[in-house]
């Protein structure tokens, strides 16, 4: 058997398998498109979860500084160490969701606003506690 015949047979076999798959599952092309959309949706859901997670981290950081400077420093360092692998994982999810590296980095940086917001809310909540007891 020469090389051209072998290539033609492989091409014919691939075409036959593709045709059989389309007969068995006529929506296979549509399913592939839906799967791509699911991946993109997963990226956006991950961003929503990440900003919420960072907000609660910020609440913990703010509350820990209210308990004392040393407690605040230890909590901040601990949360920063916890965030490194977490953010790397989130970055990978965004890349797999179709984001460019630059956009994924920008979106990850944007989710850090959640931590800042949580810290501010936590620190401001101390003032409301004093007003409520006055």
Quick rundown:
This protein has 134 residues and is mostly helical. The chain is built from 4 helices and no strands. The chain has one domain (33-133).
What keyword list fits this structure?
134 residues; mainly alpha
Would you give an account of this structure?
By secondary structure, the chain is an all-alpha fold. The chain is built from four helices and no strands. The protein has helices at 3-24, 28-67, 69-96, 101-133. The relative contact order is 0.12. The model has no long low-confidence stretch (mean pLDDT 81). It has one domain.
Summarize the amount of helix as a percent range.
Answer: over 70%
Strand coverage percent: under 5%
Tell the overall outline: elongated
The ordered H/E elements are HHHH
What structural class do the secondary elements suggest?
mainly alpha
The biggest beta sheet reads: none
What's the alpha carbon Rg, rounded to whole Å? 26 Å
Q: How far from one another are the termini?
A: 95 Å
Query: How many helices in DSSP terms?
Result: 4
Domain count, please report it: 1
How confident overall, as mean pLDDT?
81
Keywords: Membrane, Transmembrane, Transmembrane helix, Transport
InterPro entries: ZIP
Main location: membrane
Transmembrane segments: 104-125
